[in-house]
Amino acid sequence: MAVGSWESHFSxxxxxxxxxxxxxxxxxxxxGLFSVKDDVLEVIDKNKGLSGVSVSALNFLEEQQALLxxxxxxxxxxxxxxxxxxxxxxxxxxMIISKSINDFxxxxxxxxxxxxxxxxxxxxxxxxxxxxxxxxxxxxxxVSVQDLFLYNDSLFAISNEGILAAQLNKNLFDFNNWExxxxxxxxxxxxxxxxxxxIAVLSEDYLLKKSSDIWDxxxxxxxxxxxxxxxxQNTYFLSDQAVYKMTDGxxxxxxxxxxxxxxxxxxxxxxxxxxxxxxxxINITKGKDQQxxxxxxxxxxxxxxxxxxxxxxxxxxxxxxxxxxxxxxGYSKFxxxxxxxxxxxxxxxxxxxxxxxxxLFLSSYGQGIYDFEGEKLLxxxxxxxxxxxxxxxxxxxxxxTNYMSQKPLGCFDGESxxxxxxxQLGTTTPLYIAESSENVLWIxxxxxxxxxxxxxxxxxxxxxxxxxxxxxxxxxINDIKVNRDDELWMATxxxxxxxxxxxxxxxxxxxxxxxxxxxxxxxxxEVNALAxxxxxxLWLGGERGLWAFSKALQTQxxxxxxxxxxxxxxxxxxxxxxxxxxxxxxxxEEGLVSYKTNSLAPLLxxxxxxxxxxxxxxxxxxxxxxxxxxxxxxxxxxxIDGTILYETRANGSMVSWDLIKFNGDRLLNGVYLVFVxxxxxxxxxxxxxxxxx
Length: 693
Description:
The chain is built from one helix and 65 strands.
């Protein structure tokens, strides 16, 4: 990843909608969109210009050769070959109700849109919403519309009230011009489609056909159907696990038990494409089944993230309070730009991983701790049904939190266990461990028991628990991290707080609230997650996006939101920073993405300094990157005769420069010098780079 770039890490296993055009199959998953053509998979995301990830409607416009996408938040994208048009009229309507786009039908240069607020009309020539028909239900009520169908110059709509229809040459704003079929309200119609030369409706249990001015039951369905499509006078139905074909008025199974949760269907001769809610996209051709999805984690629902030796481990465990009634198998691992799904036979609801004495250990909600390399459970009576919410490795001890236990904090030395009792620790519901530079353990506690943070110094057997007089804005602590200055930072329900010395425990321990530009930072605002990058800069995630602040909060570096960045949602749930790659992993309400920061974990020397790109050529767009320098080094850029052009400090062991000098001028072609030194001048390095444009 280039510095400043984004990458999506969505699971594409929950297939929902399909569209086809120009020999391409498009599949929208619960989070994300991809295409397949001639066995080539392509992810289509914000890097390609899309506005969102939660697709709720999909169609391909043959005449315009464009993909039409509707989102749950009301945004519409028209994806042409060389650009994307985003239409946000519906999304911007100031109403606190769902604005989801549910279906499209095309008539010439107009697209009728089924939305949760009625029917909108999109003019493809102006690329704007020209009309909106909302109060068209019985007696002028506002209706939610799920499906649309054009038939003989009439528009049919499935609404939450039942089926509505109106002639297109009449005033569609007037509810009196919409006919309401009362009898359909009890059948829960799902799809309207063309059946022979008539129109029919698929409901949960029946197939209905329009006769004159009423809808009659044509047949009882053999099982609940999710989708129907008519191709070349043939009608196909899709259920959870079967494809049916109607022949001579009889519905018979054609494909059965070869997928798990059918949501949408495309039929092309003997080729069947199925959007499966568990398997993503399934291609069935002449008896051959193939799962076709991009690389990604198992699920979008993520319970936690750990990073070890440049690998990101992602876990999908259920809530610890329900872990004894749910079973999630396996976890996801991201390494060398590829996702792997890994499982441990007999060890489920995996919640975390850590490295202790050179070996990997996995934790579980309900099954204790597993020695990954020894391929065995740690078989101690205390681990029977134990819910391990976190592990932390020191040189000699593996510490772990044991949720809902009278022995909530445990210690493993490689051979035996010892425990801290709930009476000593003051809680039975520990969730997360952070450690100071002098091995003081800070424990994030569930807010159901007193204040949400506890400190324990094993060397002195000292305990401390926050209370209402500790200066913390809220008893609900969402995240805790210790930075390189040995400060403990807390993200809480009502803002931020920090302890200036995480290694010092005393009864008088008092938290501070941080200030930025003369005001309390995030005062009375929920902060869900925090992280420190290689330069010890503070990253914060809350309900309004992602922030980055310089060390000591001198400047705000970034404020990323759903609208100005790659973020799929403004609601940030968790952050994890990888010091080896400089990637910040951002778990949002709508899935996982990563951002490549201009930082790396600090190094002790100028051991592996690289300058990229070198030379800088015309086709390169971006900053000059220098990595592998000594931690927090001072970097000076100069002409070949030694004139200083710019200087800055490394973020850990990396620095980026936009090639703009102190005076605001951009660097011209030539050869330039780079001087690197640490704080006391003992570590030095000199390099050079060229600009050839």
